[in-house]
Amino acid sequence: MANKRIIDLGVAASVTNANVMEVDDAAFIESKQATVEVITQVERDARIAQDNVIEAGTGLETDGTYTAPAG
């Protein structure tokens, strides 16, 4: 899978976190490789943190139950 071009990914069954993607930047002498997990980790962590803030602010529990505010 590491040798697939982006255009070929449409025919792949799915992209997993273990798949390797080429990362090209003008600052690099040659392109680098990174896994999908590394590339998406910052966004995933930010979304999890924001979800936790929303749950805490509205009284939602992680199991889907709701605790009514006192008063």
**Number of self-contained structural domains:** 1
Query: How confident is the prediction overall: mean pLDDT?
Result: 79
Order of SSEs, N→C? EEH
Question: Count of DSSP helices?
Answer: 1
Count of extended strands = 2
Query: Radius of gyration over alpha carbons?
Result: 19 Å
- Provide the β-strand percentage band: 5-15%
Largest β-sheet summary:
2 strands, antiparallel
Give unreliable regions as ranges.
Answer: none
Distance between the termini: 57 Å
Which range best describes the helical content: under 10%, 10-25%, 25-40%, 40-55%, 55-70% or over 70%?
25-40%
Shape: elongated
Strand order of the largest sheet: 1-2
Structural class comes to alpha+beta
Key features of this structure:
elongated, 11% strand, 2 strands, 71 residues, two-stranded antiparallel ribbon, 32% helix, alpha+beta, single chain
Quick gist of this model?
By secondary structure, the protein is of the alpha+beta class. Helices cover 32% and strands 11% of the residues.
Topology:
Elements: E1 20-23, E2 32-35, H1 36-58
Antiparallel strand pairs: 1-2
What can you see in these coordinates?
The chain is an alpha+beta fold. The protein has one domain (6-58). It contains one helix and two strands, in the order ββα. The chain has a two-stranded antiparallel ribbon with strand order 1-2. A hairpin with an 8-residue loop joins strand 1 and strand 2.
